[in-house]
Structures are given as C-alpha cells and as structure tokens.
Amino acid sequence: MILHLITNFSASAGAETMLARLLKASSDERVMVVSLLDVSARNRDLADNPRVEYVALGAHSLPAILHGTMRLANIIRQEKPSVMLCWMYHAMVVGTVAAKLARRATPVIWNVRQSLDDVASLSRSSHMAIAAARALSGSASGIIYNSSRAREMHRAYGYRNLNSVVIPNGFEIPAVAAGHEAPPRRIGIVARFHPQKDHATFFRAAASVLRTHPDTRFLAAGRGLAWDNPEVVQLISDAGLPSEAIDLRGEVADMEDFYRSIDILALSSRTEGFPNVVAEAMSYAKMVVATDVGDAAEVAGNAGIVVPARNPEAFADAMRKVLDLSPEEYARYAHLARNRIESEYTLHNIERRYSNFLRNF
C-alpha cells in the first residue's frame, strides 16, 4: 500500500492536481491519501479512483498539528505502507517525524513542488517548513523534485539527501483544432491571487500592451481574481489597466473552456517549481509568455518566450512579439507547443517514472 501525505488536498493548485492525476492513473490495489488539512470533492472527483482511501487530519492549528502527527504515526503502524510519499514542505516535516514516532522502517519519500527563486514571496509558515525540512533532509529515503531548478536550489540551500530524482508533471492530452485562422488577441493568466504569482507585473504589462495593441483583451482566472476583491481592483487601477480590457473570472471549474478561449498563456510568477499552467496551455496548442522561474523555460522550449521576473516592460515586450505574429507563424509555434507536451510530458510516461522510482524502496 502506498500512502500519500499532502498538506491540503482541498486546494486546487498544481501539487493537488498532479496527485489527483497520479491517483487516477494508479493500478495499485490499495492507496491512501492523508491530508494534513482537508479533502475536497473536487480532488476526489478528479482522482476518480474507488480504491483510494482518504483521511483528513484537520490540522488547522499548532495543537491540531501535534495531534495530527500522532494520529499519522498510528496510521503508519496500523496500515504498514510500503512507502510514504510526502507532498510539499509541511507534509515532508510531519511525515518524517510521524514515521520516526511509528518506529517502523517505512521509506519516506519527499516530493518537492517549489523552487526557491524568490523566497520573499512565500509565507512565514512556508519559510519555517522549508527550514525545518532542511534540518530533516538527511532522514528522507529519497526526494522527488518536479523541476531541475528546484533540485539545484534546494541542494544549494542545504538539503543533504543525495538520493534524488527530477520527475516533471504529467498531462492528459486534449483534442485540439487543426489551425489558427486569426492573429492572436486574447491573453490569459491562471493563478490564485498570491504574492508569488505577481499579478501586479501582469496588470502593468497588460496596460503597457494596450497602448500599442488596443484590441488586445485579457482574462484572469484563479481564486481571488474577482471584482469583489479590493486588492485586485486596486492593483488594476494602479497599473492603469482599464476595467473593460480585462475579464476577471475567479476560480474556474471548466479549465478546458478557459484554455480554448485564449491565444496566449501568461505566467508572471516570482517563483515556481514546475508551472502546470504552462504545460496545460501548451497541450491545447497555445503559446506562452512566462517569467524565468522554476522550469518554465525548460517546459516552454521554443514554443514560447521567457523573460526575467518582476519586469513588466520585458513582459509586455514579449507579449507584443507574440501578438505581432501572423496567423501562419502563430500556428507553427502552437504546433510546436502541442508536440512538446506530447513527446515529453504525457501522464502515462510520468506515472511510469514515479512507479519506477518508488519501486526501489
């Protein structure tokens, strides 16, 4: 039995989505998912695997975390998992401590989903978990990083475990239309409202683009990206971006419809690991403009443009370059984007790499 421990399986970010995809592809007879916080119906439905058992520890406070750690230790003793895969920093720390308390030789594998491009953009809680994980890193049986940059940065930061591997995220490949008959005009960003996603840079870049390409339209999806959020409204106003030029959609359930409705995917983050949205958009044959964080440049390859983070004018210039492509040029790059995901990042191939690595323990 494989036990997956994740910080919050009620979130709908990259790590939770990737775990759900692995669960759906899993052929193991028994799989257990333990969430430090909660489990959402969205992620259960996305996993769509009746063999998976779910446990939510509800550890929303320090006393609850301590209680949850003891409860996890009991689960390890009772269930005797062949391996425990810990997703993200808080789960890595709690899982390692719980395994020691359980006094069982259960291999504990860490799954690092974040690079350290800009640690200032992370929360105080994340800072503490990252530091605690560094102290415990020698105790892990192995580490999976979802990007090469994440492995390099964590090693430089002091993560001591040498038994590591880079396994990127995997994707199911959707059906797409054959061509693109009009010039690109719609630019979309998909990211929850959080400092590390740096929407301020995106809004400022969008305002700059409008001055030279007034028919461009922008779409923003993600938790918190709505007109009833005063912080978002203030950022848009400060950027000088007219409200009629941007469609704030909030948290979107139908991401397929969103990707099909845009021509260019924008990623303005200050830090990432493996940016799911870049590969997802590319799988729909969309070009990307991204900041050079995590493995964004590696994923985009020659099907997008990558610029330094926190540089609105560079970001705007990159968007203009794509907007100025002819329909034929855009279609060629879109085809390259689609082919790159098909050749490098299919879910089947990534699931097999996970299985091969975990089989060593």
Describe this structure in words.
Helices cover 44% and strands 17% of the residues. The chain has helices spanning 14-25, 41-47, 62-79, 89-102, 124-136, 148-157, 199-212, 230-239, 255-261, 276-283, 296-300, 312-323, 327-344, 347-358, and strands at 2-6, 31-35, 52-56, 83-87, 108-112, 142-145, 164-166, 186-190, 217-221, 246-250, 264-267, 287-291, 304-307. The strands form two sheets. It has a seven-stranded parallel β-sheet, sandwiched between helices. Strand 9, helix 8 (230-239) and strand 10 form a beta-alpha-beta unit. Helix 1 packs parallel to helix 2 (41-47), helix 7 (199-212) runs parallel beside helix 8 (230-239) and helix 10 crosses helix 13 (327-344).
Radius of gyration, CA atoms, in whole angstroms: 21 Å
Output mean pLDDT: 94
Inertia-based shape: globular
The SSE string, one letter per element, is EHEHEHEHEHEHEEHEHEHEHEHEHHH
How many distinct beta strands? 13
Helix-strand category: alpha/beta
Helix content: 40-55%
Contiguous helical run count: 14
Low-confidence stretches: none
State the end-to-end distance. 12 Å
Strand content: 15-25%
The quaternary state of the protein chains shown equals: single chain
The strands making up the biggest β-sheet line up spatially as 3-2-1-4-5-6-7
| Biggest pleated-sheet summary | 7 strands, parallel
